[in-house]
Amino acid sequence: xxxxxxxxxxxxxxxxxxxxxxxxxxxxxxxxxxxxxxxxxxxxxxxxxxxxxxxxxxxxxxxxxxxxxxxxxxxxxxxxxxxxxxxxx
Length: 89
Hints:
The longest helix has 24 residues, at 21-44. The chain is an alpha+beta fold and 89 residues long. The chain is built from 3 helices and 3 strands; from the N terminus they run H-H-E-E-H-E. It has one domain (3-84). It has helices at 3-15, 21-44, 63-73; strands spanning 48-53, 56-60, 79-84. A 3-stranded antiparallel β-sheet has the order 2-1-3.
C-alpha cells in the first residue's frame, strides 16, 4: 500500500467513526518515524516485525508479543508496524 493509499484508508476510518482524528494523527506520526528510518530498519531488522509507538522503535519476532508489550508500555497510543523481509499473513 502506498503512503497516499494508507492516508486515504485512514481518512475513511475517521469518516466512518472507526478511528478518531487524534488516533489518525498519532498513527501518521508513527508512520513518519518509520518511513524516516526505513532503509536502516530494513537492513537491521530482517525477519522481524518493526514498529513505532509514541516515537519509540520496537521490534519482535511475533506480532502478539509486540502488540502486548506496546499496549502495556504505551496504553492508548497507536502503533505503526510492518514485517521486514516476510509477509505477515
